[in-house]
């Protein structure tokens, strides 16, 4: 159970503590922030409402801790990360339970998220040892006008304090995808969890605590965005921000100082279906891609663009599979669970109503109880409907019938987003040509969009973000290059 056993230290009465200087603490504000369970719509947990002074303290400590961490041998950093990964996996049950209660993640998926996170940490430790263990050696005589009188040695050094802000939908996995690269690269880390997902994050942080990381190297502050959000992202002590979430990221990018940013801000991933596609494969991927975790994934299939000649057949196949989806509480491991909040459900409902008024065909009746929305496929969606462009972040999927491939590519590229997309066809040449024409960070051929495996590069263009993630890219992004140039008194040529 959350907050018990090895996690007892992180709970005080009915409120979870925050983590600073290697200790679990109560905020001097005396206030807490309530976390509402999406299923019961009642307060499930409370976390500390940290103050700006507490953020200042955390930043100060993080700066000091980073200096000695940067002097810790790489293999020791990796060893501690492996230890944290093992502890995290060992305690997957209470963390998964928190995911079920605060973000309504289906029970099995919640366990998968924790295990995947442990694997990510371990892989990151190994990758860090490999890529940070080597640098570059350059000689000067490759550039015109130079003799071989200079040797240049480059290595990767840490940035300092990394601020990590994960989203509600993968609070543990998308936190460790920032924490592990930052730490292996010699940075310290300040984590600001999403409100829903905070308790899962606090448990995950305790696993790092139990692994024995130095005091102050990792901190986790919880609280109201209005109080500490901008204060954190604009804090002069922050040397890098890694953020995943909605368009708040655009505001953060505009306000942040001259520091490296890694931003993943959502998508409207298109699924282009050609006449020769394997329609059973497409239908299976539309279900997985559009409806897993009730569509609350940046990489969810968010619009199907299908050639008119196969549209009826595809819609029938998807309808048949939608009918088999189970709908209910996450504890029952239902396929479709309540969306994260009432405001989210209201937003989704607004998109559905707009589509109805403008004449979309409802393949299932629209049904909602509280935050629970039944899966809905909307056929004959047209570009004048909001759902053709906006991301519902819910179990509602529009189908647009297209009369040419160009029309599909045009719709995909007219979006403000450009995270991922997918194309289904048996003709690999066409798939490559279409994929290359799609303005997205990744194109999947004959499969639904997905971020993983976690070592693959992951990036969006346009409003979907800046920078590239994935384990290797994140480690590189959280370092900078340091050069040392050896100037020789005379040209020197090996064995010359
Ligand atoms: O929504 C977060 C995004 O990173 C999706 O990840 O693993 O569901 O493709 P995934």
UniProtKB/TrEMBL annotation:
Where is the Aldehyde dehydrogenase domain positioned along the sequence?
24-483
* Known catalytic reactions: D-glyceraldehyde 3-phosphate + NADP(+) + H2O = (2R)-3-phosphoglycerate + NADPH + 2 H(+)
Q: Which principal EC class is assigned to this enzyme?
A: oxidoreductase
Please give one Pfam family short name.
Aldedh
Asked if the Swiss-Prot or TrEMBL record annotates the protein with the keyword Protein biosynthesis, the reply is no
Against InterPro entries, the record matches this protein to: Ald_DH/histidinol_DH, Ald_DH_C, Ald_DH_CS_CYS, Ald_DH_CS_GLU, Ald_DH_N, Aldehyde_DH_dom, ALDH-related_metabolic_enz
Residues in the active site? 264
What EC number(s) does its UniProt record assign?
A: 1.2.1.9
Q: What are the alphabetically sorted keywords of the record? A: Cytoplasm, NADP, Oxidoreductase
Name it: NADP-dependent glyceraldehyde-3-phosphate dehydrogenase
Q: Which organism is it from?
A: Ziziphus jujuba var. spinosa
Ranked from the top, the taxonomy reads: Eukaryota, Viridiplantae, Streptophyta, Embryophyta, Tracheophyta
């Amino acid at each position: 159970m959350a907050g018990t056993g090895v996690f007892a230290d992180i709970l005080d009465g009915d409120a979870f503590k925050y983590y600073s200087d290697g200790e679990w603490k109560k905020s001097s504000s005396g206030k807490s922030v309530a976390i509402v369970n999406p299923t019961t719509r009642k307060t499930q947990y409370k976390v500390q409402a940290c103050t700006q002074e507490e953020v200042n303290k955390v930043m100060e400590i993080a700066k000091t801790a980073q200096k000695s961490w940067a002097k810790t041998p790489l293999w020791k950093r990796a060893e501690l990360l492996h230890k944290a990964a093992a502890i995290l996996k060992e305690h997957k049950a209470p963390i998964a339970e928190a995911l079920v209660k605060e973000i309504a993640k289906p029970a099995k998926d919640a366990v998968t998220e924790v295990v995947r996170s442990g694997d990510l940490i371990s892989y990151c430790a190994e990758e860090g040892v490999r890529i940070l263990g080597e640098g570059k050696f350059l000689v000067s005589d490759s550039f015109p006008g130079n003799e071989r009188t200079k040797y240049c040695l480059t290595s990767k050094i840490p940035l300092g304090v990394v601020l990590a802000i994960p989203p509600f939908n993968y609070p543990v996995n998308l936190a460790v995808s920032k924490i592990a690269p930052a730490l292996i690269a010699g940075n310290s880390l300040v984590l600001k969890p999403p409100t829903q997902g905070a308790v899962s994050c606090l448990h995950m942080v305790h696993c790092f605590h139990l692994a024995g990381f130095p005091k102050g190297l990792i901190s986790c502050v919880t609280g109201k965005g209005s109080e500490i959000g901008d204060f954190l992202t604009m804090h002069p002590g922050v040397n890098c921000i890694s953020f995943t979430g909605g368009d708040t990221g655009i505001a953060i990018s505009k306000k942040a100082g001259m520091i490296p940013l890694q931003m993943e801000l959502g998508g409207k991933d298109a699924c282009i279906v050609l006449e020769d596609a394997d329609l059973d494969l497409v239908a299976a991927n539309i279900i997985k891609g559009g409806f897993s975790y009730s569509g609350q994934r940046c990489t969810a299939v968010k619009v199907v663009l299908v050639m008119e000649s196969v549209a009826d057949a595809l819609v029938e196949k998807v309808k048949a599979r939608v009918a088999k989806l189970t709908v209910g509480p996450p504890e029952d491991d239902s396929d479709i669970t309540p969306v994260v909040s009432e405001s989210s459900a209201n937003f989704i409902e607004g998109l559905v109503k707009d589509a109805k008024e403008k004449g979309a065909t409802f393949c299932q009746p629209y049904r909602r109880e509280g935050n629970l929305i039944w899966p809905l496929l909307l056929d004959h969606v047209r570009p004048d409907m909001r759902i053709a462009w906006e991301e519902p972040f819910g179990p509602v999927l529009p189908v647009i019938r297209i009369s040419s491939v160009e029309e599909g590519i045009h719709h995909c590229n007219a979006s403000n987003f450009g995270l991922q997309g997918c194309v289904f066809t048996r003709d690999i040449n066409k798939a490559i040509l279409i994929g290359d024409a799609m303005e997205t960070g990744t194109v999947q051929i004959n499969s639904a969009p997905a971020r993983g495996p976690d070592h693959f590069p992951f990036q969006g263009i346009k409003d979907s973000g800046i920078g590239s993630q994935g384990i290797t890219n994140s480690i590189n992004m959280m370092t900078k290059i340091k050069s040392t140039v050896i100037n020789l008194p005379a040209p020197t040529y090996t064995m010359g």
